[in-house]
Amino acid sequence: MNYQPLTIGNRFRIQPPGCSAPDDGRIALIMRRGAFGSGEHETTASCLEILEQLDDLVGARVLDFGSGTGILSIAALRLGAAHTVCLDIDPRAVQTARDNTDLNGLLAQTTHTTTPLDQLTASDFDLILANIYADILLACAAELINRTRPGGQLLLSGIPWEENYSVRQTYERLGCTVLKNRLLAEYSTVLLRKS
């Protein structure tokens, strides 16, 4: 089932496979609509809007924790990241992300896995993306920070308003600095730097 192209931020356009889109200079993210979303949710849109503003993505190593469709990884690669690791506990999500990455011609730059975070061999990521439930962000805070290189960034979303403070406080206590804190209609997105 197809859907209409959707523009997000100043640089992205999400579109179904085979869609003819205007030559407007936007970066096309080709996504099949699936059970794990195609970018319409406010948390995904917020992450994409912040991603397009980051100036140090070229050559970056990225972890997409709870990758779902893989849309954030695809966007990071389109902005110049060298490699992404898409990690999700649901094998169906991993297959969806693999399919979408392939549609965008980026399969060779992506590792797809269901390996638990604490068993992942890769570390020293330049950027960690985690658009996931707030309780998981809290439970995995130390592990996510440990896998971020010093000076690297963490872009967290899926955080309900009422849990925004506890998430920020937890990551700050573990050595991060808040760079952005965006309150959306129901959720929030936080960009942090590991000190």
Can you give me a brief rundown of this structure?
This protein is an alpha/beta fold and 195 residues long. Helices cover 29% and strands 31% of the residues. Strands 6-5-4-7-8-10-9 form a seven-stranded mixed beta sheet.
Helix and strand run: EEEHEHEHEEHHEHEE
| Rg calc | 16 Å
- Give, in spatial order, the strands making up the sheet with the most strands: 6-5-4-7-8-10-9
Question: What value does the average pLDDT take?
Answer: 93
Flag low-confidence runs. Answer: none
> What structural class do you assign from the helix and strand content?
alpha/beta
Helix content: 25-40%
Describe the structure.
The protein has 195 residues and is an alpha/beta fold. It is built from six helices and ten strands, in the order E-E-E-H-E-H-E-H-E-E-H-H-E-H-E-E. It has helices spanning 42-51, 71-78, 91-103, 134-139, 141-146, 161-173, and strands at residues 6-8, 12-15, 27-30, 61-65, 83-87, 110-113, 125-131, 148-160, 176-183, 187-194. The strands form two sheets. Strands 6-5-4-7-8-10-9 form a seven-stranded mixed beta sheet. Strands 1-2-3 form a three-stranded mixed beta sheet. Helix 1 packs parallel to helix 2 (71-78). The longest helix has 13 residues, at 91-103. It starts with 5 loop residues before the first strand and ends with a strand.
Which secondary structure elements does this structure contain, and how are they paired or packed?
Layout: E1 6-8, E2 12-15, E3 27-30, H1 42-51, E4 61-65, H2 71-78, E5 83-87, H3 91-103, E6 110-113, E7 125-131, H4 134-139, H5 141-146, E8 148-160, H6 161-173, E9 176-183, E10 187-194
Parallel strand pairs: 2-3, 4-5, 4-7, 5-6, 7-8
Antiparallel strand pairs: 1-2, 8-10, 9-10
